Amino acid sequence: MAGHKYDEMGLLVVQENYCCEHFEPDDGALVPMRECWCCKWSNFRADSKGGTCDSYSVCNYVGNAKEAVNR
Ligand code: SF4
Predict the structure, then answer these.
(1) In this structure, is residue 7 part of a structural domain?
(2) What is the domain range of residue 59?
């Protein structure tokens, strides 16, 4: 995972065209491609509803977080 960035919550920061082996298509994506943008674990569509529309989001998949959730 060298070079990956994480947000203040320890979630993996992803670009819309990134993809990983945990990809799962989001129900809201009409033509799901294997990209974070179409993945149910990303916040891209939730973020764009709030008005921010940059090409970065975070991955909510626990297995991609910086450290295992053990608190
Ligand atoms: S959003 Fe997360 S789980 Fe989905 S493809 Fe991107 S990195 Fe993988």
Answers:
(1) no
(2) 12-64
Number of domains within the chain: 1
Residue 64 predicted with pLDDT over 60: yes
Burial classification of residue 68, based on how many CB atoms lie within 10 Å of its CB (0-12 exposed, 13-18 middle, 19 or more buried): exposed
* Structural domain contains residue 3: no
Cβ 44 under 6 angstroms from ligand 1? no
Secondary-structure breakdown of the chain: helix, strand, coil percentages, each rounded to the nearest 5 = 15, 15, 65
Question: Is residue 42 situated within a structural domain?
Answer: yes
Can you give the pTM of this predicted structure? 0.80
Q: Is the CB of 20 within 6 Å of ligand 1? A: yes
- Which atom of ligand 1 sits closest to the CA of residue 41? 1
The pLDDT of residue 34 is 95
